[in-house]
């Protein structure tokens, strides 16, 4: 019996390990290290919290804590999806097909353009891109350049033509601190670029949540004070 199982399973076993070896030869995506550092820091912070008398996580979240946790998880998922798209051309291709991103060629670039903001002139270059991708974006929408660390750009003009689309973008940030943009921070004529509506931002400013005493009755009202008991550490499946 053993020899029969080995005969049937051995080829698959060998192929699995061959695939693993091939994957190990691939370099990690650029944003993997940053994601690992964030996860490590969160685990370390939770460990210190627990060893210094922190309470275990409740089995059932109260209204505000549950809403806050859900918002944070949704935000982390959105950040993860954006990071994958920034790192992997095949992932960004899905968003291009859906009209949430586009790839094209720069046909005009004005790196010297400046506008007045907060009593001073700031760099706001204009870049014009032509693309044959289906575009589902609109004028006034914000997009990001994965190749320039998520540089923000505002769509100031979008026009459909017989050959595709003409999109004019106003660059917003990540151009250095000087009076003129840093070298390489502004695409030049002839450059191939990709822009996406996905934002690689992590932990945006938290919204204002109600205090525990201000929870409305529709969500259970103010919860009672939590007093930990040994049973809290027992899982239903343990």
Q: What share of residues are in beta strands? A: 15-25%
As an assembly, this protein is single chain
- Point out poorly predicted stretches: none
CATH class of the domain at 96-196: Mainly Beta
Query: What's the average pLDDT?
Result: 87
CATH topology grouping of the domain at 96-196: Thrombin, subunit H
Give a description of the structure.
- The structure is a single chain.
- By secondary structure, the protein is α+β, with helices and mostly antiparallel strands.
- The chain has a domain at 96-196: Thrombin, subunit H (Beta Barrel), CATH 2.40.10.
- 32% of the residues lie in helices and 22% in strands.
- It has 4 helices and 8 strands; from the N terminus they run ααααββββββββ.
- It has helices spanning 2-24, 32-51, 63-87, 89-97, and strands spanning 101-110, 114-117, 120-123, 126-131, 142-145, 151-161, 164-171, 192-196.
- The strands form 2 sheets. The protein has a 6-stranded antiparallel beta sheet. A two-stranded antiparallel sheet has the order 2-3.
- The protein is extended, with a radius of gyration of 25 Å.
- The two termini are 36 Å apart.
- The model has no long low-confidence stretch (mean pLDDT 87).
Record keyword descriptors for this entry:
extended; two-stranded antiparallel ribbon; Thrombin, subunit H; 8 strands; about 240 residues; alpha+beta; single chain
Short recap of the structure:
The protein is α+β, with helices and mostly antiparallel strands and 238 residues long. 32% of the residues lie in helices and 22% in strands. The strands form two sheets. Strands 5-6-7-4-1-8 form a six-stranded antiparallel β-sheet.
């Amino acid at each position: 019996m053993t020899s029969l199982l080995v005969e049937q399973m051995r080829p698959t076993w060998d192929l699995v390990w061959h695939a693993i070896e091939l994957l190990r030869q691939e370099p990690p995506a650029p944003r993997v290290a940053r994601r690992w550092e964030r996860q490590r820091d969160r685990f370390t912070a939770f460990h210190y919290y627990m060893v210094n008398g922190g309470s275990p996580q409740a089995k059932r979240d109260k209204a505000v804590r549950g809403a806050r946790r859900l918002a944070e998880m949704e935000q982390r998922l959105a950040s993860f999806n954006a990071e994958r798209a920034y790192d992997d051309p095949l992932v960004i291709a899905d968003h291009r097909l859906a009209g949430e991103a586009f790839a094209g060629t720069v046909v005009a670039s004005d790196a010297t353009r400046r506008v007045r903001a907060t009593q001073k002139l700031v760099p706001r270059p204009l870049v014009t891109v032509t693309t044959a991708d289906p575009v589902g974006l609109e004028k006034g929408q914000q997009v990001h350049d994965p190749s320039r660390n998520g540089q923000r750009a505002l769509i100031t003009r979008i026009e459909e033509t017989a050959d595709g689309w003409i999109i004019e973008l106003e660059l917003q940030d990540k151009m250095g601190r000087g009076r003129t943009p840093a070298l390489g921070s502004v695409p030049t004529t002839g450059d191939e670029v990709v822009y996406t509506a996905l934002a690689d931002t992590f932990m945006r400013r938290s919204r204002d949540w109600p205090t525990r005493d201000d929870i409305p009755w529709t969500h259970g009202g103010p919860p009672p004070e939590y007093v930990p008991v040994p049973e809290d550490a027992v899982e239903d499946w343990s």
